[in-house]
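Subject: Interface between my chains keeps coming out wrong

I've been trying for a while to get a sensible model of this assembly. When I model each chain on its own everything looks fine, but I need the whole thing in one frame so I can look at the contacts. Pasting all components below, labels as-is. Any help appreciated, I'm running out of ideas.
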Amino acid sequence: MDNNRVEMLVEELEAGSKHEEKLWRKLLPGVVSGATGNNLRETIREPLFGLLHELGETALGVKLKLVIERTPTFPAAELLPLVLELCGELRHDSEQAVRELERILSELATPIIRIWREILLVPLIGGLDSDRAQGMAERLLDRVSATRAKVVVVDVTGVPTIDTAAGGFLIETFSAVKLLGTEVILTGLKPEIAHTLVKLGIDFRMVAIARDLEDALRQAIAMIEEDRSRQRKIVWARGSNFPGEGEGGEHDGI
Amino acid sequence: MAGKLRELLDISENDFDVVVRISREEDIAIARQMAKQLAQELGFSLADVTKVATAVSELARNIYRYAQPGKIMIRKRPEERGGPAIQVVAADRGPGIESVERVLTKGYTTHERSLGIGLSGIRRLMDFCEIASEVGTGTVVSVEKRRRKF
Amino acid sequence: MAFKEKVVPTIRIGDSLLVPIQIDLDDKTVEQLQAQLLAEIQEHRVRAVILDVRMVEVIDSYISYTLTETAAMARLMGCRTVICGIQPPVALTLAQMGIELQGFWVARDLEHAIGMVCSP
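Reply #2:
Try treating it as a single job with all components included. I did that and got this:
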């Protein structure tokens, strides 16, 4: 008797896949039997979770409505807390997945590349929120400190917009890099970003600006050459004071 | 406002992991050291440990300069919703602040040897900052920083 | 200046003064350091001071204010000030508080700092 009703309902529900049909067949006998209590909850928990996964909340709701209409003994009171519980579980799972993806993305999105002797390139991609910006700043500073890089080139071509908060993060990061004694060159500012930045009163005057990556690299190399020639002069001057020690004194940095 | 202040002033010391009374200059360094240790225990990044220690240094100095004796109370909150967090409460029954809004402005100071960066700097370093004060009753500053996700 | 008044040992290189700060700075020591440096600049006709803060773990607003003040005073005595060895967490903290070390030349390390003060 119940079997017939289950079959009829399954037909009416027009399952989109064999898998869905199987889940309904597992779920419905318990629902139409009029059973209650823990027993019922245990038997329908798994197929219900499967259907939630398969159909999503909205579609499952529509189909359950149909089942309720056809089933006078529908155990709504039993089902409701179970559904809420399962929804919570589902959300928890997806939240965890999103968090993990965010973490992976944030590392992928801010590579720090040594493109030249003593020059680091940071191509920024995507939006800059507080956590990401701070994580990026910490990794960059550690790298600058460990490699003793003389210049950091920050390329923001891949950043869609820069608002006050993101502009503030960039300024903080640049100031922090400069406190390590390292120069910063900023490049990749699109016209619309330049427009909003000026409107917001952010001028990045503490850093050098380059037209494009090529220009940035040229400026960076020039900075390094200048620094090196100054070092050379000192070694030479020392050499004149202590004959024989000057020439070999020059060394190569990183 | 005044109710909030009383509530914060009456907060129980027993709820905190560490209570440092600020009456000598050395106490500033002690409070800073304790904050650093607790932030480290919660797994904060080295930069965030330094930020917490610096904020505590500012809070302790404010008490030492303007409102001693006062105390710094620190607790770990490993079970917070947004992830583990550290909370620091600086409480004193000193003269109080006339305009909280004004002291939060960068550059404002009543002390001749200061940058006027203290409280506004603390607010920038921490994720949450609440100040309750009343002239003649005292001041409570409660700040929090949570561990970053990445 | 009597040795006991020195909070930080200093090293003279030519007309520069190297100041490796090996202690954690607090309000009192940073004030003493200021007095000590000004006295040494005067006494030894120092033309450049190099502050090496590699070992300093916390620089808050008061410490940075006193250091900035010292650099400004030194400048008025004809002496430039270079700071080097700021640790990444300290740099991030200063930057987030919006503190600029005005009046300082910032060097990557001691070698860079010496290069700065020795160049013509």
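Reply #3:
Confirming on my end. Chain A has two domains: 2-106, 110-249.
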